[in-house]
UniProtKB/TrEMBL annotation, chain A:
Pfam families: Transket_pyr, Transketolase_C. InterPro entries: THDP-binding, Transketo_C/PFOR_II, Transketolase-like_Pyr-bd, Transketolase_C. Keywords: Oxidoreductase. It comes from the Bacteria. SUPFAM superfamilies: Thiamin diphosphate-binding fold (THDP-binding), TK C-terminal domain-like. This is Alpha-ketoacid dehydrogenase subunit beta.
TrEMBL record, chain B:
Residues 126-145 are annotated as: Disordered. It comes from the Bacteria. PANTHER family: DIHYDROLIPOAMIDE ACETYL/SUCCINYL-TRANSFERASE-RELATED (PTHR23151), DIHYDROLIPOYLLYSINE-RESIDUE ACETYLTRANSFERASE COMPONENT OF PYRUVATE DEHYDROGENASE COMPLEX, MITOCHONDRIAL-RELATED (PTHR23151:SF90). Residues 4-79 form the Lipoyl-binding domain. GO terms for biological process: pyruvate decarboxylation to acetyl-CoA. The keyword Acyltransferase applies. Keywords: Acyltransferase, Lipoyl, Transferase. This is Dihydrolipoamide acetyltransferase component of pyruvate dehydrogenase complex. Its EC number is 2.3.1.-. Residues 142-179, 259-296 form the Peripheral subunit-binding (PSBD) domain.
């Protein structure tokens, strides 16, 4: 099985699905990059992160559409395309810009099926990059998936590795509801073994990344590889953890998390988002509500602080959850304090 | 061979009393040949591999990974393929007299309660290397032994992994990353478990905990309809099935303690009451705060033997930590210690060491001098080179010096044999090799056994002097402090700065009297203060 990066895995999934289903189109800022330009080079970018490279030459400009710099227009056009029978995959270059198109997401895409009595389908995927660690400052580093997770009618996917990214993206494109697909920028280069062909990963089914007895650790996106390092290190000491990657925050695999918490009695949630109204807070609240009598120690959340993402490298490093913070949390939850 | 042969917990070395199964290399149904690796066992000090000295088919793996068993306990059954399962069951029940192999007398009754339903949280026996072809193919790929083992166990073809280790070698991380990235892999046990027991529950659409519980109870998940998301089987489904089939609900780990709310838990922790000693009267069998207070008042006490103090972490003990605790507690309790401290002038040793190490190739430490001098002093005063036994005094005719080496998580004491008969240079080389193997945890039982005297040196940490605990069955240990500069009065009344080292000899008074210990220290001092003799 070839070992490829998450960038390549997502690019592969787009190629596969556009080949398989002629209704799939891709649109966004610079997804090919040369439209209307004077350089004569038609595929000038292939996406700023290279995720849509090679799509234009293969599928043509009717299906790979460079848009103006207007997120409202991108999502609005995608909404219309989806309602009229296409399966658009729109790209918002940075999730931080989602505020600009919030009405199209919150009040339009998420609501069509409900407002039209189930007669309308919105098979729409919106890919967006998220996450810190790239020294990209406060407007290009956020993990705003809690905002979108809180909106009923949207499905939210946050892969932590190339294998999951490909399988989840194929599921997302084939889903008849709007799906927000978050891609953590710092994971694009991470490689793992990914099958060549077609496979899908169902939404709402967490991955049990490691199995253990003493602590349940739930981690999302880039926090998963960090947590793997810590969990494996502690395993050498005899401390073993269930490490759960929910993979989708809406729907959330409550069952897997609760079963694990009921077995271990201890929960650490690791999330790169700030702590207020976050996915970590949501999971912690769920465990406190539904596994209360199994808890042996207070739940611990390892999150960023409630501030914008700092620009200075040192501050950003201090802001993000680190292996040291995760390890300290696991040791603390074991101490029962 | 038509007999049933038990594989028992081996005894490696005099002091081994129990071992922990750390990794099975064989699966049930696998044919054993002589010399084949059977199982890794962790003892107090080493991890060693038990090799087969017989041929036959592995019929039962009794002891799961992680279980600690006394020496002589039954861990597996080997028999000819012709022997029926029923015969093996009869044997396990004890109906058939044990047909013991030459080296393996089962000294304890086989434990039937560990029926061969293997908990999935442990790597199941059927998962490991059940495909000999794969294992053979993997042999050809450059990989670390651990990586190869994990790959074989999970049915991973190593040639599909790009190694990131030295010279492109596949390491543990590579294999684990591959497995983590391929959920299908994690869930696909290596091909066809040959015999019974292991269930193929990983291939069923079920939650991780449902699979673990089903494996604990021996339930085949294929027989269940899932009620979870996308028809997934969850824990509740397994519990319902178990109840309907009359299976006892699985005891969750450490479930002896009743459930309790946070307030009751906190009170129990504050009062040092173990929840398992609390008689729950609350709703749904929960322990209330009142119950906790009652448990404290009850005459049975119910004091938690191990309450977690505030401000501490509770980290599970390693086998080494437990062994150290047991051995040293016994030593300090049972051995009547006394201590003799002496100062030794080290100027000559330091000067001689400087000259020796200035010569190409030599790298001799002060400790090597002390080891050699101790060995010669034991030769001068053989009454210290002894061990107390109830039957009589065991005397050694050569000085086997054990050297305390600190390693992560504890310490080990590898032995330089006959240090009195070896030149300094040999002692230095052997000590360096032993210390390096100790840090890699690769010492063998032979490296660790037969010590007659221990040297423990904390001088490099600036410790001035200390009193060491004797390591039974030895009768003495030398605690070595740092060499310091100190003003001394010379014979002519002048003051001069000298290099001084304090050593403290701990003696077992049952075997060694004060005057004998003092004679040893005098001999040691003489060897170190006139060190040319150490070169002979």
């Amino acid at each position: 099985m070839p070992k490829i990066s998450m960038r390549q895995a997502i690019n592969d999934a787009l190629h596969l699905e556009m080949e398989r289903d002629p209704r799939v189109i891709v649109l966004g800022e610079d997804v090919s990059g040369g439209a209307g330009g004077t350089s004569g080079e038609r595929e000038a970018a292939g996406g700023v992160f290279g995720l849509t490279k090679g799509l234009l030459p293969r599928f043509g400009e009717d299906r790979v559409i460079d848009t103006p710099i207007s997120e409202s227009c991108i999502v609005g056009a995608a909404n219309g395309a989806a309602l009229t029978g296409l399966r658009p995959v729109a790209e918002i270059m940075f999730a931080d810009f989602v505020g600009v198109c919030m009405d199209q997401l919150l009040n339009q895409a998420a609501k069509f099926r409900y407002m039209f009595g189930g007669k309308a389908r919105t098979p729409l995927v919106i890919r967006m990059t998220c996450g810190g660690g790239m020294n990209a400052a406060a407007q290009h580093s956020q993990t705003i998936y809690p905002i979108l997770t809180s909106i009923p009618g949207l499905k939210v996917v946050i892969p932590s590795n190339a294998y999951d990214a490909k399988g989840l993206l194929l599921t997302a494109i084939r889903d008849d509801d709007p799906v927000i697909f978050f891609e953590h920028k710092s994971l694009y280069m991470d490689e793992c073994e990914v099958p060549d062909g077609d496979y899908t990963i169902p939404f709402g089914e967490a991955a049990m990344v490691r199995e253990g007895e003493h602590v349940t650790v739930v981690a999302l996106a880039r926090m998963v590889p960090l947590a793997i390092g810590v969990v494996d290190k502690l395993a050498a000491e005899g401390i073993t953890c269930d490490l759960i990657d929910p993979r989708t925050t809406s729907p959330l695999d409550e069952e897997s998390i609760l079963e694990s918490v009921r077995a271990t009695g201890r929960l650490v949630v690791v999330d790169e988002s700030p702590p207020r109204c976050s996915v970590a807070a949501d999971i912690a609240a769920m465990a406190a509500e539904k596994a209360f009598h199994h808890l042996k120690a207070p739940i611990i959340q390892v999150t960023a602080p409630h501030t914008p993402v700092p620009f200075a490298r040192e501050l950003e490093a201090a802001y993000l959850p680190s292996p040291e913070k995760i390890e300290a949390a696991i040791r603390k939850v074991l101490s029962g304090r | 061979m038509n007999a049933i042969t038990p594989i028992i917990m081996p005894k490696w070395g005099l002091e081994m009393s129990e071992g922990t199964i750390s990794n099975w290399h064989v699966a049930e149904g696998q044919t054993l040949s002589r010399g084949m690796e059977i199982v890794d066992i962790e003892t107090a000090k080493i991890v060693n591999t038990l090799e087969s000295d017989l041929e036959g088919v592995v019929r039962r793996l009794i002891a799961p990974v992680g279980q600690t068993l006394p020496v002589g306990a039954l861990i597996a059954i080997v028999a000819d393929a012709a022997v029926s399962d029923a015969d093996i069951d009869r044997y396990l029940r004890g109906d058939t007299p044990a047909q013991t192999a030459a080296n393996s007398a089962p000294t304890s009754a086989p434990t039937l309660d560990t029926a061969p339903v293997i908990d999935r949280t442990e790597p199941a026996a059927a998962e490991r290397a059940a495909d000999p072809d794969l294992a053979r193919r993997n042999e050809g790929v450059p990989a670390t032994p651990l990586a190869r083992r994990i790959a074989n166990r999970h049915g991973v073809n190593l040639s599909r992994i790009t190694g990131t280790g030295r010279n492109g070698r596949v390491n543990q991380e590579d294999v684990e990353a591959f497995i983590a990235a391929n959920p299908a892999m994690t869930s696909a046990p290596a091909p066809a478990p040959a015999v019974t027991a292991a269930l193929d529950n990983r291939s069923v659409h079920a939650t991780s905990h449902a699979i673990r519980m089903a494996n604990r109870l021996g339930i085949d998940l294929k027989r269940l309809a899932g009620t979870g998301r996308h028809g997934r089987v969850n824990v509740a489904d397994v519990e319902r099935f178990a109840a309907a089939s009359g299976l006892t609900a699985p005891a969750p780990v450490a479930s002896i303690a009743p459930p309790a709310g946070p307030a009751a838990r906190k009170l129990a922790a504050d009062l040092g009451v173990s929840l398992s000693s609390v008689n729950p009267t609350g709703p749904k069998g929960h322990a209330t705060k009142e119950d906790v207070r009652n448990a404290l008042a009850a005459p049975a006490g119910g004091l938690d033997p191990d309450p977690i103090p505030k401000g501490r972490d509770l980290v599970p003990h390693t086998a080494m930590r437990r062994a150290i605790a047991t051995a040293l507690t016994a030593a300090k309790r049972d051995v009547p210690h006394f201590y003799l401290t002496a100062d030794i002038l080290m100027d000559e040793v330091l000067s001689l060491r400087g000259q020796l190490n200035a010569m190409a190739g030599a790298k001799i430490s002060v400790n090597d001098f002390i080891v050699r001098a101790s060995a010669l002093a034991l030769g001068d005063v053989p009454d210290v080179n002894v061990q107390w036994t109830d039957a009589g005094m065991r005397r050694f005719n050569m000085a086997n010096i054990a050297i305390a080496v600190a390693i992560e998580g504890g310490l080990v004491t590898p032995v330089v044999r006959d240090a009195g008969g070896k030149p300094l240079r040999t002692i230095a080389a052997e000590t360096a090799a032993l210390a390096s193997r100790a840090r890699d945890r690769r010492l063998t039982q032979a490296d660790l056994s037969d010590g007659s005297f221990t040297v423990s040196n904390l001088g490099m940490f600036g410790v001035r002097d200390f009193q060491a605990i004797i390591a039974p069955p030895q009768a003495a240990i030398l605690a070595v402090g740092a060499t310091r500069r100190e003003a001394r009065e010379e014979a002519n009344g002048a003051m001069r700065f000298r290099s001084v080292m304090s050593v403290t000899l701990s003696c077992d008074h049952r075997a060694i009297d004060g005057a004998i210990g003092a004679r040893f220290l005098a001999a040691l001092r003489q060897h170190l203060e006139q060190p040319l003799g150490l070169l002979s």
